Amino acid sequence: MTNAQVRVRLADFGKQVRYVRQSLGMTQRELDRRSHVGYRFISELEIGKENPSLATVLRLADGLGCELSDLFPPQLNVRMPNTALGREL
């Protein structure tokens, strides 16, 4: 995956976080309080300028009261080939 492709996927992820947050009527500061992820980071994440760790994504999902999968728009759901782990799944 190229750097440009990564940036596009990060932007899509950020848009999805914003969509879920706004659908719940939640501000960035409220999500900050609920998730312990700074509102400035959330702001930058929502415009695709931050690359969150898995721990941060888990905290965001918890703060939003949603499933982890709810934060990933359909275009980000990439399936691994059956042999990716060296065995059939």
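(ticket continues) Second input and output from the same batch:
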Amino acid sequence: MSASPPHATHGPGPLVAVWAALVALTGALVAVNHFAPGNPGIVAVVVLTPAKAGLVLWHFMDLRQEGRAIRVMLAAAVATIVVFIALLMVDYSFR
């Protein structure tokens, strides 16, 4: 018995759609940083980069097939990073 890859049953459609979304989000980041540098660029990076990371985790790393424990650990790690970034932004705003 040969094990088929997890994406073989779904076809290439969803993968191409996720790839296109990643390319579009990257284009949006480049455009925002080109046409509105400074604070709008920083906000775009802080918002769009985690969205891109979430797409990669969910679709390409098959997080949707993992158990509850893995998802809880990932949520705790993401929450910790969000707190650190928020504290960094607060510190940066007072300088």
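Agent notes: The CA atoms of residues 63 and 71 lie 8 Å apart. Helices lie at 13-35, 39-60, 68-93. Closing as not reproducible unless the customer responds.
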